[in-house]
Amino acid sequence: MLKISNLSVTVEDKLILDNLNLEIPKGKKVAIMGPNGSGKSTLSNVISGKFGYNIKKGNIEFEGKDILDCSADDRAAMGIYMAFQYPIEIPGIANSSFLRTAINSIRKKNNLEPVNTRSFLEEINNIANKLGLDKSFLSRDLNTGFSGGEKKKNEILQLLLIKPKFCVLDEIDSGLDIDALKVISKGISEFSSKTNSILIITHYQRLLDYIKPDEVHIFNDGKIIKSGNSDLVKVLEEKGYKEFC
Ligand SMILES: Nc1ncnc2c1ncn2[C@@H]1O[C@H](COP(=O)(O)OP(=O)(O)OP(=O)(O)O)[C@@H](O)[C@H]1O
Ligand SMILES: [Mg+2]
Predict the structure, then answer these.
(1) Cα 130 to middle of ligand 2, angstroms
(2) Could you give the CA distance from residue 130 to residue 46 in angstroms, rounded to a whole number?
(3) Is the pTM of this model over 0.85?
(4) Lower CB density within 10 Å: C or N end of the chain?
């Protein structure tokens, strides 16, 4: 579904992604783990189309189409979604309005009618309920004053509502209490299917114990230095990155 080939990216002349190659097949859950500052969020941002990165070489194909020249909006409409490591607060924009605008923008670009308001409200209420988010979070301003864990739950709410083909979850588990981690993992597992793909970026085994990735890659200095299955996570947890870096 997503194929990254020989991708090198700089920010302010600093090389952050270094000739990276990575394939995420349809129906697979792929995990990336790596030390702080190794370039994981940069990779997420470059996939989703955030400004400010210099693509020095390489390409990213999504369903066979090179997406590097596509805007973030177009990539979202194609079915790419990213859950932020640090979701941003937007005072003055109600969460439910934001969600409806997001979903209708994607629908418009795909020549679909706007969502029916009643079924939309029903659906977000159901999802919020499943995630243990009180209804009041839908009328509050987007992420404004939400706790760290509430912001992460709201990212998963968006995921379950938008139902993208491919999603990057950048440290979706950071800041979650034990119960919230279970709730979020359940939401991700519910989303996961043979027709979509997930890139999970995490520092910890606990999320991967629930989600069970098909492949695990260790990332350092902007490239993959080791690939394997879930056993790699156990070795990493025991021995740390010094074993690999
Ligand atoms: N806009 C920027 N300006 C300068 N340096 C940047 C910029 N964006 C990223 N970097 C640098 O690129 C490197 C990779 O950052 P990135 O956020 O991708 O790391 P990460 O692997 O996600 O780390 P963490 O595990 O701490 O989230 C870091 O050294 C960071 O300081
Ligand atoms: Mg990061």
Answers:
(1) 27
(2) 31
(3) yes
(4) C
